[in-house]
Amino acid sequence: MSVPAYPEYKESGVAWLGVVPSHWDCPPMKAVCELNPSKNEVTYLPEDTELSFLPMEAIGERGELDLSRTRPIGEVSNGYSYFADGDVVFAKVTPCFENGKGALIQGLIGGRGFGTTEVTVLRPKQASDAHFLRWLTVSRIFRDPATGEMQGAGGLKRVPESFVASFKVPWPPSAERNSIATFLDRETAKIDALVAEQERLIALLKEKRQAVISHAVTKGLNPHAPMKGSGIEWLGQIPAHWDVKRLRHVASLNPSKSEIADWEPETEVSFLPMEAIGEDGGLSLERTRPIADVLTGYTYFHEGDVTVAKITPCFENGKGAVMQQLVQGVGFGTTELIVVRPHQDFMSSAYLDWIFRSQPFRALGEGSMYGAGGQKRVPDDFVRNFAIGFPPRHEQTEIIAYLDRLARRFDQLAGEAQSAILLLQERRAALISAAVTGKIDVRGVTSQSNVISIDYVRPASNLPTLRAVVGAYAIRELGPMGRMAVMKAGYLAEGHAGFGDLNGRYERYAAGPYDSSLIEAMQNGAWESYGILTNEPRDEGKPVTYNVPKDYQPPFNALSALVGEDRARRFLALLSLLKGIGRDGVEAVATLYAVWNDLLAASKTADSDTICNGVLNDWHPEKTKKFKRADLDHWLAWMHRNNFVPDGTAPSTHHQGDLFA
């Protein structure tokens, strides 16, 4: 459904606000709340009284609060901001203000607290207005004008209190303010859940990317290759034709600047500070410096050298790259790099870079770090003595091509997920502004469960499709039974749970209702949206298996956003039933359901004899080899007990009746 506009509007008298509903007012902020309430109301408390303490880092950008800190009132009564439960605070200093730091204060010890002076505190004159006021302060209609009024220079610009006090706020009647706050609490929670799913997807893609890289450079691409012990505990078995080498035997570290000793001092070469080296191997090559300026005090590298950041957190984050397209083929940069030059007859630069991106190299390197805090570094000797198995040069080329291709796919999927997050955040901001300015009328919809249409809050091209979400759920619950069980979950999701948007076209296969395009979309969607990998068997007759990421969480919010909470829970109940009856039970129930439904849809008799006869004689010749009449009677009784009964509206299955005549 969509949310309507108000029936009548009037000019607000505020240029940036435009029109507001005709019954709304536009008072200044100081008329509806008190700014920065006085600390005098807690002067009666003993100085050793512990109260909540909130530095800026304890205030989140989505309204969250870290309430773990306390301080005695005697230590904070001077030099800190004072607030109480029910107050609304927002950061007033850049960049915290622009980033949205602020919250509705709740849960303080004793209901009182102190914190950073870089917040403005609003105390609504009517306590019930706190939620509405919080939404107002995070909306663009407040944030954008406030940003324009900031005073000060550089990183110390602040929103002046005078601006806040005189700011004209769109102010509906009290009951309406509560309705708007309730509406936004619920609808932004839905959007935030979808954002969280995309963030989990990005994390899963990163984890999967790392696993693929690590497996390729430690085990190779051929799962049937003969193996041998590597002699290295963490590495274990490697392909029998690979050679274990330490990097010092196949590469040189930190080549000498003497290579360019005879170059003209004014020669411009590439210059790469740490920020010019990406975590994905990318380089920003727009900077150059004369050799004379960088010959001393910087790290030297040459075209084709491979660099690794050695300082924390740059090392852990993956900073490093193959040096390419350098001006004059030479560059200098941060001293926090280790430079490795592979012996090209044994190993390519690109292959070494993939080794450096593998999880074992990063984990072992992190364990070798020395120093304290933010100055911990990976020693050169760790890289010099790092040992791993090396394939022949031609096999390195195959592995590089494989990893390049998969990395592009992982990056594409992560980019799509990030785009979806940005779009959702944009729509979240638009929804908040529309509600608090009266552009939409939520009075008649605040008691309904599905207020905003999916198209409004969900970017269809980037967020998970219904097929992807159903595939992810079905694989998680029924994947151990194989692909056919996952397919039957798709059929029954559409037929029994009412997921008509799956749009399956089901044929009567030996193992039950089957739609090749649907199962492919379910599996591909589960991979692209949730990192669930389908392993196709190499040998005929072997089952399909699935790899579900260890931290995977079922996408219930995405599912309920797509089909509504009632149908989503009906589907979960369906999966729970199927999971408990085994592979043969799932096949029997899905086939019985399909025959039964087809009979009802054709207005034919659907008693036990007719249904069982349809399975054994009209479905597929293989059915009589799998099931006897007693088996089908058992599962029909189970279906009746569990109210697993079709009504004739499920999709029909094709090639019926006379197919095997």
UniProtKB/TrEMBL annotation:
It comes from the Bacteria. One of its GO terms (biological process) is DNA restriction-modification system. Keywords: DNA-binding, Restriction system. GO terms for molecular function: DNA binding. InterPro entries: Restrct_endonuc_typeI_TRD_sf (IPR044946), Type-I_RE_S_subunit (IPR051212). PANTHER family: TYPE I RESTRICTION ENZYME ECOKI SPECIFICITY SUBUNIT, TYPE-1 RESTRICTION ENZYME ECOKI SPECIFICITY PROTEIN. This is Restriction endonuclease subunit S. It comes from Novosphingobium endophyticum.
